[in-house]
Fold this sequence. Notes:
- By secondary structure, the chain is mainly beta.
- It is about 0% helix and about 50% strand.
- The protein has strands spanning about 5-10, 15-20, 25-30, 35-40, 45-50, 60, 70, 80, 90, 100-105, 110-115, 120-125, 130-135, 145, 150-155, 160-165, 170-175, 185-190, 195-200, 205-210, 215-220, 225-230, 235-240, 250-255, 260-270, 275-280, 285-290, 295-300.
- The strands form 7 sheets. Strands 1-28-27-26 form a 4-stranded antiparallel beta sheet, with no helix packed on it. It has a 4-stranded antiparallel beta sheet with strand order 2-3-4-5, with no helix packed on it. Strands 6-7-8-9 form a 4-stranded antiparallel beta sheet, with no helix packed on it.
- The chain starts with 6 loop residues before the first strand and ends in a 6-residue tail after the last strand.
Amino acid sequence: MAETPERVITADAVVRRVAFTADGSSLMGVCGDGKVRFWDAQTGALQRAVPWNTDDRRGVTLSPDLRLLAAAGPEKVIKVWDLKSGEMRHRMPALPVAPGEIAISPDGKLLASNAEDENTVRLWDLATAKQLLTLADGLGNSGLLFSPDNSLLVGANTDTVVRVWHTGSGKQVAAIDELPVAMFALVFSPDGRFFGAAGADRTIHVFETGGWKKVAALNGQPEMITALALAPQGRVLVAGGFDDVTVKNPTKVLVWDVPSRSVMRTVPARHRVESVAISPDARWVAVADAEKTVQIWSSAAPKA
């Protein structure tokens, strides 16, 4: 008998990104019709919808506190929206090439962007919308992520090297060059002591950030990994991805117990997993898999 989710939240458009609010009462979804929707996490009732420019689909990202959304479009301009007021807060100066990935620091003060055709990462001051630094990067772009204390920026690329920069000086402090393939998903532990990267080799590689040495490899994902989420306590990790034959094939989402490095539960996804999220209490996993719904699963294995 096929497993079914504990709850299903229905949207009016395909859901691309999901995240739980800090208190776990609401679930946010960035949707393909140019709206960010907030639902009651328990009932699925729509609480509000905030519009943003549907043409700006490149590098769409949320700030860690879910107050801001940043995206770029055909104008080669990064725009930042305030999700409480629904107003555009910033419009960055025009860039020479279209941005790829975008990330916002946990304190909401910095924004980072890269571009596949430029081999650089740009660091911006969000208060003034001015560029602070230009960082030399590698070929392609597949991920950007700030550390929890805002002091570091990590960038992954199709050249298989993961680079780490200090956000104050712009100095490159590490280059992880031992990864066999490109990494598509990045995550930090809440205390910043560990960093995880996952991608085309279906493995979550874990590094300690004191010396950026690899300390673990979590194996068992059936597909390439494109989405990671870690619970605030750092004990439960969720991973999903896509079948390399076609993104329309069904996939699996794995829920990991981090201390034991074991899989707690495996749940089905209908297509490529666009995004995963885990509730603050680590009890619930939200999966967006290119449908007009979000599936909510218990993180614990079902009772026999």
